[in-house]
Structure formats: structure tokens, C-alpha cells
Design a protein that fits this description.
Layout: E1 2-4, E2 15-18, H1 26-29, H2 37-43, E3 48-50, H3 71-74, H4 79-98, E4 103-108, H5 110-121, E5 129-135, H6 147-152, H7 156-165, H8 174-177, H9 195-201, H10 203-207, H11 224-236, H12 246-253, E6 269-274, H13 283-291, E7 296-300, H14 310-313, H15 317-330, E8 335-337, E9 343-345, H16 361-383, H17 395-401
Parallel strand pairs: 2-3, 2-4, 4-5, 5-6, 6-7
Antiparallel strand pairs: 1-3, 8-9
Helix pairs in contact: 4-5, 7-11, 16-17
């Protein structure tokens, strides 16, 4: 991780920023200063941490495997491993280093997916997050905006097997073209046979490559298995765990199909921000995702033609997205528990600062009935004889005593 800490100690919860697919923390640091979420939060006094997922240029070491020699072992991970192990370790490290009990979370694209995976599977981590803001999280796809990409990824199992046969385990594999050649889409998966996938992914844009002279030494991607896991969910129109195949699924999950991530186990106050014109994930899927979570709300970006990468590279992203996040962090609305067990944001109007939450009519009627019963019982008790202990001896009195 990279830490921005201009003024410490601070009373504000630490903030963890998490990048998207095949990116690194540089995506937050290379933004224009006027549009930079990381530097703006730092200037507001937040202790800002930037996450790096395994496989990118900052994560090219391992205690047991040499990345360019033991490639299969090093790249044997999907976004589930990043969420349940890497993100969990990062959160624990921040809490230890800062002595806070909770952190805020802001993730873009697959950075939102890591959060969903961790908190749905390792539920104790829900207590370690105060607020979460997910910008167009991937993973839940009942409809795909890019139909050409959907066709290219239609058979993820065969694609994965074909890539393994040619010793390709990562995006922009090191051995495909050497360390000094440009990173162009033709080399995304190690050869021209799969360049359509790379072009439909708009791999340069996804990774934030803005010039043609980026080399392996300067920018890296991530595991092919991560891409295949995403393709599995696009094909099956579900947000499920890794599909090993029927026989291995029975061994791993006790069923032929991998289970869906239990999103209703996520209790963190979460705001999911989306755009109707996102070219990677549909707005209908974002809203359906939020409905499965207990404390999730959504917010639509108002700017027309706002795309997936605009959450990081947008010319007016501070105005369109980040200002709303910062306002929610600086002036949080507390949650109140309703009678039906759900929660909603509590707001106090200027005209009625002590307004109470809405109470269903059925609850009010029940309350009135109970009060009337108690009142009648007391009157009946006072009008009847009492025993030697001063206890009412009538049936109504016995009920009142109870």
C-alpha cells in the first residue's frame, strides 16, 4: 500500500482507496490535482491509504514463487483471493497502524467487487468498515453492455484452457514480447489470437495507459484467472464464486454449481454510484445489486454520457462524483432502525428539528389497545375487593397484576 499522511494524528477515520481491474494505486495519484480524490481527502485531514492488488507493478514479489518462473503458481488467484486475503490483510494492517476500530472504503470497478466478496464471505469484516462508496462495481451482470465482448468471452472454460496451453497466465505476460516493447492490445493475452478480446476490453483505457511507451517494467496487469472469473459471471448472469467444473464444485461447494455471493450478509453502510451510460456495467444491475444488501443505497451520476473510466479520468469527476462522497464523509446521516427492522437515513428538517421517524398505523393501534386494556384493568382493580395481601382478586385484576 501507499500512504498519504500529511497531518497526523487525525481524529478522522482512515480512508482506503482501491483501484479497478488490472490497475494500480497510480490511477489515483495521476489524476489532475483539481480532480484528485486522494489529494483532496488528504488536504481535508484524512489518513489516506492506496491499495495495490497482487499482480500489478507494486506486487511482483512472493515469499515462495518467482513471478516470471513459477507463473502458474504466482497467478493462481481471482478477485476472491484478493478480497478475502489481500484486502483483509490491508484492512487489519491499517487498523493496527492507526489504532482506529473502523475505516472508510472507496473502490472503483473491480475495487468495489473486492469489498463485496470480502464482506459477504468473511462477515466479521463488516464491523471494520464505517462507510463504503463503490463506484460502478463489477461482478453482477444480468445484461452486458458490450455484446461483442460477451461473444468473445462466451466460453470462459475453453478460453482459460487455451491460454494455459500456451503458458499465458497474466494480462500482458512478460515472456510475450520482452520488457522493452510497447504494451499494445495485440500483446494483451500474449498473441494475436485473442486480440479481439483485448480490443473489446479497451485494455489501454482500463489500465490507464495514456501513452504508447509503457513497458512491462512500468505497468503491469494481473491474473488471467481474474478475467475468466468475471467472464463466468457474464455468461451465467450471476455473481458467483469461481466455477471449478461440476465434479470439483461438488468437492468444494457441495453442489454442481458455484454458490452466489451472499450479498445480504453485508451490513456496512454502502453507497453505490453508477451511470446509466456506463460501458462496463448496466445501471439495472447496479440497482439490483444494492437491493440485495441490507444498508446499501444508490446514486446516479447526472452528467450525460458518463463512462466507466470517467469515475477516475472524468474531466469533471470531482463535481460529478467525489464531492458527494466527501459530503457524506464529512456530514454523515445517522441510520435509525424502523419498526419493520430495516434502516433508513435520518434527517432533521429546519422547520421541525426534533421530528420523529414514521411509525406504521398498525403499531400505533396496537399501542393504543394495550394502553386501554391496562387502564380498564386498573379501574376494575380499584373498584373490587382485595385479599389480605392487597392483591386484586377479580379476573381483570389478576391480569393487571400479571
Amino acid at each position: 500500500m501507499i500512504r498519504l499522511a500529511a497531518e497526523l494524528p487525525t481524529k478522522k477515520c482512515p480512508v482506503l482507496l482501491v483501484h479497478g481491474m488490472f490497475q494500480s494505486s497510480d490511477r489515483f495519484l495521476n489524476q489532475d490535482k483539481s480532480q484528485s480524490l486522494a489529494y483532496t481527502l488528504e488536504n481535508l485531514g484524512y489518513d489516506v491509504w492506496l491499495f495495490n492488488a497482487r499482480g500489478n507493478k507494486y506486487c511482483q514479489t512472493h515469499v515462495a514463487y518467482a513471478p516470471h518462473i513459477q507463473k502458474a503458481e504466482f497467478n493462481n488467484y481471482s478477485y476472491e483471493e484478493i478480497g478475502c486475503f489481500d484486502l483483509a490483510a490491508a484492512v487489519d494492517y491499517i487498523l493496527i497502524m492507526t489504532t482506529f476500530k473502523k475505516i472508510h472504503y472507496i473502490g472503483h470497478s473491480l475495487g468495489g467487487t473486492f469489498f463485496l466478496v470480502l464482506n459477504s464471505l468473511v462477515t466479521e469484516y463488516n464491523d471494520k468498515f464505517d462507510r463504503a462508496f463503490l463506484m460502478a462495481p463489477l461482478g453482477y451482470h444480468t445484461t452486458t453492455t458490450n455484446t461483442n465482448l460477451q461473444k468473445e468471452l462466451d466460453d470462459p472454460t475453453s478460453l482459460h484452457e487455451a491460454l494455459i496451453k500456451v503458458d499465458t497466465f497474466e494480462i500482458f505476460p512478460y515472456d510475450a514480447y520482452g520488457p522493452i516493447q510497447d504494451m499494445v492490445p495485440d500483446n494483451c493475452l500474449g498473441g494475436k489470437a485473442w486480440d479481439n478480446i483485448c480490443n473489446e476490453l479497451q485494455i489501454q483505457k482500463i489500465m490507464g495507459i495514456k501513452s504508447s511507451n509503457n513497458t512491462v517494467a512500468e505497468t503491469r496487469g494481473g491474473s488471467i484467472k481474474l478475467l475468466i472469473h468475471w467472464a463466468q459471471n457474464i455468461k451465467n448472469k450471476k455473481f458467483r464464486r469461481w466455477d471449478f467444473g461440476e465434479s470439483k464444485n461438488v468437492e468444494e461447494y457441495d453442489g454442481k454449481n458455484p454458490p452466489e455471493y451472499p450479498l445480504n450478509a453485508i451490513t456496512v453502510r454502502t453507497k453505490i454510484i453508477y451511470s446509466p451510460t456506463d460501458d462496463m456495467v448496466k445501471d439495472t444491475d447496479i440497482r439490483a445489486l444494492a437491493k440485495q444488501m441490507k444498508n446499501a443505497t444508490t446514486r446516479k451520476v447526472k452528467r450525460a454520457n458518463f463512462k466507466h473510466d470517467d469515475f477516475i479520468d472524468g474531466e469533471y469527476v470531482m463535481e460529478d462524483v467525489y464531492t458527494g462522497i466527501i459530503t457524506d464523509l464529512e456530514y454523515p446521516k445517522p441510520l435509525i432502525t424502523r419498526v419493520d427492522g430495516t434502516k433508513k437515513n435520518q434527517t432533521k428538517s429546519a422547520s421541525n428539528p426534533t421530528s420523529l421517524p414514521d411509525i406504521p398505523w398498525s403499531a400505533l393501534l396496537s399501542l393504543v389497545g394495550i394502553l386501554l386494556f391496562i387502564l380498564i384493568s386498573i379501574i376494575s382493580c380499584c373498584c373490587k375487593k382485595k385479599d389480605s395481601n392487597g392483591v386484586c382478586t377479580t379476573d381483570a385484576g389478576q391480569r393487571a397484576n400479571v
